[in-house]
């Protein structure tokens, strides 16, 4: 009988991101999913407090991290995959692969060209490009990469036992669904991805990539990492009770047309297509990210 996965969830409040460490209790092999690198947009400084918490958890539990898994190229937080790979290679004597879906090349080329990033800095940034329904091992655990497009075209989820780590394809029931207005996003495609997830057994657990607690007199104030397929099917505010596709697509499209861009959009995309690795230094020793400006005249 296969062992039951151990799941640790750590919330990063500034970007409302859930980060996960999933481990096999027998071999102590583990993966890290969607880790965060801290960024201060006022000072333009990158720090590693969130990533170091993950490293401490790994060290305290004597895990061996075999992979760092990205669900997609995030537009709202910077990944710490590159930093974690560097630190873990030194501490455990084994280099974990940074993995993402096989369609990431389209996203890398689009934003590499937009921001003027040399192709050499992102072309082979990821160690493994995972195929749809590709099966891989975490010690004695079996994991499957499933394609869940809609929020972005390259989006993956990871099924490990009866757990689904769904990234930004679905949020908690009182938050609803993810935006679909990024390049390559599509509300109809997201609807199909959600239906795919919610056709899994009722007891399967869905671990989301973000949480934005509604708060207020009738809403919860604390972030929540996990719900079940059954809870999502019955209670998701946007997709419960088999909401018709046309109704969801119309609502989602109208809603997305009025959403502001994520606060760390430009910084996140430039570093995340590089798998969290830093830009090359100039001759003066500086490292740069490019920010577009809006001219009103």
Please name the defining characteristics of this protein:
single chain, six-stranded mixed beta sheet, 297 residues, Metallo-beta-lactamase, Chain A, alpha/beta, sulfur dioxygenase activity
Q: Helix and strand layout, with pairings?
A:
Blueprint: E1 6-12, E2 17-23, E3 29-33, E4 36-40, E5 45-47, H1 49-60, E6 64-69, E7 78-79, H2 81-92, E8 97-101, H3 104-114, E9 128-130, E10 134-138, E11 141-147, E12 156-160, E13 163-167, H4 187-197, E14 205-208, E15 226-228, H5 229-235, H6 245-256, H7 265-272
Parallel strand pairs: 3-6, 6-8, 8-9, 13-14
Antiparallel strand pairs: 1-2, 2-3, 4-5, 4-7, 10-11, 11-12, 12-13, 14-15
Structural class: alpha/beta
| Mean pLDDT value | 96
In what order do the strands lie side by side in the largest sheet? Answer: 1-2-3-6-8-9
Share of residues in strands: 15-25%
Shape estimate: globular
Largest sheet: 6 strands, mixed
Low-confidence stretches: none
Tally of DSSP helical segments = 7
Q: What's the order of the H and E elements?
A: EEEEEHEEHEHEEEEEHEEHHH
Rg of Cα set? 19 Å
CATH C-level:
Alpha Beta
Give the tally of β-strands. 15
Any idea of the CATH topology?
Answer: Metallo-beta-lactamase, Chain A
End-to-end separation in angstroms reads 67 Å
Architecture (CATH level 2) name: 4-Layer Sandwich
Q: Helicity, in percent?
A: 10-25%
As for the number of domains, it is 1
CATH superfamily: Ribonuclease Z/Hydroxyacylglutathione hydrolase-like
Describe the structure in brief.
Helices cover 25% and strands 24% of the residues.
